Design the sequence.
């Protein structure tokens, strides 16, 4: 019995070694396939960047033409910002006054699109700061998400400085105004050259959502105002109908009194 048990154990060890070697071989083959896929993915990424680079240059003059038209529309960027569900919450009451001087917005990829981008706010002369443009630049340092962020140091005019919003209660469909100024966005990162793994959410929203089609948000505000106007008009019509019905009832009562 002891000999049989020893023989069985030896067979099991040989089988285990065979299974282990087969497993190692399968894993090595699988790794080769993964390496091949990785190489294809890298080539695909390079091709995508080449295409994006090409169309970034094609879009540039179209964006310039769009900016020229936008300049003729009063408070376009202010309206688009406050109508955006995320950006609108960042503007204080004072910020909205400053944004009335915002003449154009520009989002530009670097010549090598994978290197970074910049967001520039162009202002007409205003009583708040000396700068005619405020820029925030994002430079990607490597593939792990690290970036260098630089921003314009705002030259506030005497007595101005970063305005602080007031916490207003929400009225009707209007969202409450921000407690902190949007312009702190330009100062928050001035002393932080490198931020590991932290994305600038405001920049991402402006670049990926607002900038491609700001007309969507500008029209949203127009639609809301039109809707509110319709509601007010409807209320006025209803009140007028009630007044007409009351007058008819009064006339009927007067007629009955005369008949008696």
Sequence:
């Amino acid at each position: 019995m002891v000999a049989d048990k020893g023989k069985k154990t030896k067979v099991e060890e040989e089988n285990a070694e065979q299974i282990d070697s087969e497993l190692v071989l399968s894993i090595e083959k699988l790794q080769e396939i993964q390496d091949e896929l990785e190489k294809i993915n890298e080539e695909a990424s390079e091709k995508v960047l080449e295409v994006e680079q090409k169309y970034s240059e094609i879009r540039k003059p179209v964006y310039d033409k769009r900016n020229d038209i936008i300049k003729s529309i009063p408070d376009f960027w202010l309206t688009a910002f406050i109508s955006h569900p995320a950006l609108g919450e960042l503007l204080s009451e004072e910020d909205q006054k400053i944004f009335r001087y915002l003449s154009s917005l520009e989002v530009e990829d670097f010549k090598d699109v994978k290197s970074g981008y910049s967001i520039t706010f162009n202002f007409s002369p205003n009583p708040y700061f000396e700068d005619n443009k405020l820029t925030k630049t994002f430079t990607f340092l490597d593939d792990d998400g690290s970036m260098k962020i630089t921003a314009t140091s705002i030259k506030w005019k005497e007595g101005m400085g970063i305005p602080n919003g007031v916490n207003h209660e929400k009225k009707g469909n209007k969202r409450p105004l921000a407690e902190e100024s949007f312009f702190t966005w330009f100062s928050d990162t001035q002393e932080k050259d490198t931020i590991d793994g932290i994305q600038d959410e405001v920049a991402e929203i402006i670049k990926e959502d607002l900038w491609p089609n700001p007309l969507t948000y500008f029209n949203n505000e127009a639609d809301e105002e039109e809707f509110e106007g319709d509601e007010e008009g409807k209320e006025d019509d209803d009140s007028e109908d009630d007044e007409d019905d009351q007058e008819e009832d009064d006339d009927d009562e007067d007629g009955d009194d005369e008949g008696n």
